Every structure is written in structure tokens, then in C-alpha cells.
Amino acid sequence: NVYPNPANNQAIVSGAAGSSIQIFSANGQLVKSIAFIVENESLDLSELERGLYLVKISSEEASHVIKLMKD
To answer: Which of 22, 52, 61, 64 is the most buried (most CB within 10 A)?
Structure first.
């Protein structure tokens, strides 16, 4: 889970401890990557422009993508 959504300069990732995160812009460009996250990891979004991003959360078991709006 990623919240708040939409987010301003920070978002929290919960329920994904030990996973990796990749954040992609709407056109598919990788803009941020974290190799190993802890529970309730805080994502610094301050350097990202406003718009839609895709957050890919990957673990050994599975991966899923969440749409995130940056205000």
C-alpha cells in the first residue's frame, strides 16, 4: 500500500518490507529506485514533478504496480 495518494513531497509504503521499489514516470522512465525497503518506508518525492507515476514493488514472491499521483 502506498499512501497518501495523491501525495505531495512524501509517500509511505506499508506491507512491503524487504521488497524493492522502482518509480517510473508516465512515459516509462525510471526516476527513483530503492533496493531494500523497511516497513512503513518513507519515499522522498520532493524532486519529482507533478503528475502520474507508476510505483513497482517487487519481492521474491511477486511484483505489482501502483499508480501514484504527485501534487
So the answer is: 22
pLDDT tens by residue, the chain, 71 residues: 999 999 999 999 999 999 999 999 999 999 999 999 999 999 999 999 999 999 999 999 999 999 999 99
* Nearest alpha-carbon partner for 53 in 20, 19, 34, 28: 28
Q: Which residue, 8, 18, 14, 3, is CA-closest to 67?
A: 3
pTM of the predicted model as reported, rounded to 2 decimal places: 0.92
Residue environment code for 19-36, b if the CB has 16+ CB neighbours within 10 A, otherwise e: bebbbbeeeeeeebebee
Q: How far apart are CA 10 and CA 29, in angstroms?
A: 20
